[in-house]
Amino acid sequence: MSFLPCKCATYAFSLFMSFFMSGVVSLVVSLVNVGWSEAFWFVWLKAWLLSFLIAFPTIVAVTPIVRKLVNLVVAAEPSEPVEP
């Protein structure tokens, strides 16, 4: 079941990646800085919103650069099997 055309795959990936990563990172940082308290959930949700608003456009912007860097450091698969 698909909702978006294939050309939107990069943006969908960026949206989901930024949503989950900003959530996990802001959760850990909020827990370290505030600890379990009555204000924890408010502090975390506020931090998550701010970090998501920064993470999404950042991921969209740096994805082409990261792809180029990955292509530089990862060997391409040979087109034909190499025989010993």
List keywords for this structure.
mainly alpha; 0% strand
Biggest sheet architecture: none
Helix- and strand-based class? mainly alpha
Strand content: under 5%
Shape: elongated
Mean pLDDT: 89
What portion of residues is helical? over 70%
Uncertain spans: none
Over the alpha carbons, how many angstroms does the gyration radius reach?
19 Å
User: What is the string of SSEs from the N terminus onward?
Assistant: HH
Extended strand count: 0
Distance between the termini: 45 Å
Total helical elements: 2
Layout: helices, strands, pairs:
Layout lengths: L8 H26 L5 H34 L11
Helix pairs in contact: 1-2
Plain-language structure description:
By secondary structure, this protein is mainly alpha-helical. The chain is about 70% helix and about 0% strand. The chain has a domain at about 30-60. The N and C termini lie far apart (about 45 Å).
In short:
This protein is mainly α and 84 residues long. Helix content is 71%, strand content 0%. The model has no long low-confidence stretch (mean pLDDT 89).
